[in-house]
Design brief:
Blueprint (H helix, E strand, L loop, with lengths): L3 H4 L4 E6 L5 E5 L12 E8 L4 E6 L6 E5 L5 H13 L3 E6 L6 E5 L2 E5 L7 H11 L4 H18 L4 E8 L19 E5 L9 E4 L2 H9 L4 E4 L10 H4 L6 E8 L3 H15 L1
Parallel strand pairs: 5-6, 5-9, 9-13, 11-12
Antiparallel strand pairs: 1-2, 1-3, 3-4, 4-6, 7-8, 10-12, 11-13
Helix pairs in contact: 2-7, 3-4
The protein binds zinc ion (ZN).
Amino acid sequence: MIPIDAILFFGVFNFISCFQCNITSNLSLKADIKSYRQDTIIQLKFHSNINSFKIKSNPAALPIVFISLHDDEKTGQLVVSNYVKENKSVFIQIVNNNHRLIRFTSLKRRYAFDPNRIFSKKGIRLTLEGYSSYSSLAATKVKQFAALILQNLSTAKTIIAVHNNSNGKYSIHSYLKGKKDYKNALRVYEEPGSDPDDFFLTTSTQLFEKLRAKKINIVLQNNKQVTNDGSLSFYYRNSNKQYINIEAQEGHFSKQNEMLHALLSVLQ
Ligand SMILES: [Zn+2]
């Protein structure tokens, strides 16, 4: 068990019940995460004088865990929240005032990072440098935060991430020859007539085959030579867990929901 007080800086844990989301109690940082009931979502809340974020999670040991890292990507969160309300599932969500970047101060210096770039040493360095500046102390804090997220994913066999993009930017076409992510893909299936912004990205050949058979856009990550960007898909490149991202254009609720159900049907 990672010492929680080391992870969340000066944070406060708020416990909320799963379905009503009412705050039922506030505990100090030294609360033991293992004592939570299975049907309880936990919000881990971090306050700093710049920004605040929370992680909502449920520590139940279920084979599928959903995760939303970017709090500015609302459609995927809504798709998963709706599913979780009806089904006993685990959904880890960073709640960060609808922002993508998490900001914090340490020794009076301001830092910012992308929470999907923190799952490798190199990724942490690049994201701190890219959005603020690097220091070993800041990197240690970010690494501890990443460890907390990974701890919540540790019992899952399948990790389903949800992300949203904007029209015509990052898409399945980013993985085609000559494009930015070409070397990160081993195989790409694009359904004729589909919107290229709506696609799966997976580390699993099995999931690639099954979803391709359902005629849905999908990228199989090249786990051997994927760029070390510190993303979750990079982290799980050689794992015995299967990782899959349901990536859809912001606002494509029906499509992302349909993709979720197609995925769940092949996971049965
Ligand atoms: Zn995202």
